Amino acid sequence: MIGALLKKVFGTQNERNLKRIAPLVDAVTQWEPSLRKLSDQALQAKTVEFRERVARGEPSDDLLPEAFAVAREAATRTLGMRPFDVQIIGGIVLHQGKIAEMKTGEGKTLVAVMPVYLNALTGRGVHVVTVNDYLAKRDSEWMGTVYKFLGLSVGCIVHGLDDRERKAAYNCDVTYGTNNEFGFDYLRDNMKFRLEDMVQRELHYAIVDEVDSILIDEARTPLIISGPAEKSTQLYVRVNRIIPHLKPEVHYTKDEKSRTVTLTEEGVAAAESLLGVENLYDPRNMDLLHHVQQALRAHTLFQKDVDYIVKDGKVIIVDEFTGRLMPGRRYSDGLHQALEAKEGVRVENENQTLASITFQNYFRMYKKLAGMTGTADTEAEEFAKIYNLEVVVIPTHKPMIRTDHPDCIYRTEREKFQAVVQEIKELHAQGRPVLVGTVSIDKSERLSRMLKREGIPHQVLNAKHHEKEAEIVAKAGQKGAVTISTNMAGRGTDIVLGPGVAELGGLHILGTERHEARRIDNQLRGRAGRQGDPGSSRFYLSLEDDLMRIFAADRISGLMHRIGMEEGEPIEHRLVTRAIENAQKRVEAHNFSIRKHLLEYDDVMNQQREVIYRQRREALKGGNLKPTIMDMAEDLLLDIIESTTDEKSYAEDWNVEGLRTEVQRLFGPGLVPSDAEMADMTPQDLKELLWQRVQEKYDAREREFGETLMRDLENYVLLQTLDSLWKDHLLNMDHLKEGIGLRGYAQQDPLVAYKREAHALFDDMIHRLKEETVRILFHVQIRQEEEVQQLRQQHENQPMYYGPADGPRAPQTVKKGKKVGRNDPCPCGSGKKYKKCCGK
């Protein structure tokens, strides 16, 4: 009550934001008459003038009115499109590093031109992030006309470009591309062995189109680059054969809300019997238990043509939010292999993670971040808490006149689809275009079969036909058109009404199911009623729909029984629609909690990632790494002396044997003085003598190899060892995260325990990095410089896969000067056989 009163007096936060922006819009408009009189050359010369003013230190905010007006005039001349005042508002919001929520059809693509132009004047590059290659290419060519007219360079990052082409695109003033391409390029750059091979510049300013799809829907799936790991795939096939023998509620239970499936005691006994093992929970069988659980998930929680499709003998993931295929992406932790076994296609080898980052942490690295979408306000809290991004709702250019009808709810899915077909039939007879939204490929094809039986011509747009997507969507507003589509999130193509359609009532949106997120429903609704067009929308639901069945069916079913509803008769009431929206809000809050929780864990990993990547870049920049190597050697020597000697005891009481073993292991034989020489030494004397001998030995190796080769070798060994240990660390962190939840049973906060143990693992990795780097450099034998180059090339050319991955630890690679048999003593001096040491 008080809140409503305060809003009336002071206005909402959004209204106050728009009031503050209004004078800036007026200032942009005031420049218009003078700029309109300029020739093309004079208008283009403004870019040079602006760049000079920026170089002199003038803030971009001071340039905004004139620069926006120049971009507006350039768009009018090159595209014949003059941005409206509401589009200027949207552009200002984007320049301020906020999210502009603009209804579908309000021209978001054009809105971005003005803030992109202003921020590109710094010469530090602007990234415009889209959801697919088609939109990136289309927008870079379409809006690129404006930028090129004003003297800016434009690049586009799409799948299939080589590093040279990528680097050229990133060096442009404006670079279009997809979120996946930008993220993977960042990871790949941090695996390179030379600075000049890196393609990205610093992350300066990004505008993310369909920001809710990228920063929220895809936030739970990290970008992962993985390499092949040697592990048998036969176990997946063996375990897959037993799953059909396990019965639901007897051998396992599943929870659809949390997407989990659990073996019962009877299930464990049955699995043990079928697999021929005594105890599935024996530590030796933990890998087998994990395979059983993943196979159960594959069979009970993942549906063909809903979560994935099988195409050309491969299991391809279907994006649950956009309905798009995601070739090259794989489920992690062996789940993808379990699905391949289930579908009877070739089971691919497991992969090992080489590099990983979440979209949250990638996009938070930009100095300034902004976004646009038609639906962000429902997730405003999440944008504020996780990304520190404020959502500003931009008014429409023309009033919205679309009619949103209340939901119709039926008892069964069969009744619902019959009603859907009947409505499509009636509207088609009138000539009104209809866009039907479905939640899965399976449902879209079922509805298509029903329409074929009724003789209604229609188009089906889903992940199986996405190459025709733009053409199909563009025609969806023509008279009599019927288009069935999976989720419309981020389709990016306007539906323009054909001749005479507006008079018939415009495009009708027919949703066949509610999504867990209201945002996705609003995106579907938003396809109608663009720029003041007429239109309407209605959702048809049934008590058998997932959202209704899991969250709201009991209450509404009871209501249907009490009022004596007949078969085929729907409930249609605003109260019911509100009840469903409340259920969606609860699911949204739950999902936000999951994403926030995951981010808290990933933040720990992110801090470590930043340290490692910073060290890598420093190593690449440094040129001469000898001081770094010698610092490592001195730290290790000090650790050895501290652990084997004691200031308060005589030399004969020291652990001389341990001292000799450790010094020989790391630095080679012949460095430790004899017992007689050590008799009168203090630990400090010993440290000084040993450090002198270590330095002399390293200098001798440098003279032997030559300074140039030694610098190359230091660079290669440090980076190779760092990459190898980082891969191991990623695997260890995955295992730590899997089991950390159990700490709650011991009255420990799992997150606190995770941070503590992750820190210990990281410290251990850094210590091993020093040990391995020093040990290899003091023992390696190289006959010719070409061997170092061959090693580097071999490392750079390792196969990589993109998407969630898993797998065992990668073996370390150490190049020796001569061929060594697997059972020979290892040349590193460890005393072990070569196959058990460096030859692993």
From TrEMBL:
The keyword tRNA-binding does not apply. It is found in: Cell membrane; Cytoplasm. It catalyses: ATP + H2O + cellular proteinSide 1 = ADP + phosphate + cellular proteinSide 2. Residues 801-840 are annotated as: Disordered. Residues 419-588 form the Helicase C-terminal domain. One of its GO terms (molecular function) is metal ion binding. The keyword Nucleotide-binding applies. Its main location: membrane. ATP binds at residues 87, 105-109, 494. Its EC number is 7.4.2.8. Belongs to the SecA family. Part of the Sec protein translocase complex. Interacts with the SecYEG preprotein conducting channel. Has a central role in coupling the hydrolysis of ATP to the transfer of proteins into and across the cell membrane, serving as an ATP-driven molecular motor driving the stepwise translocation of polypeptide chains across the membrane. Monomer and homodimer. Part of the essential Sec protein translocation apparatus which comprises SecA, SecYEG and auxiliary proteins SecDF. Other proteins may also be involved. This is Protein translocase subunit SecA. The gene is secA.
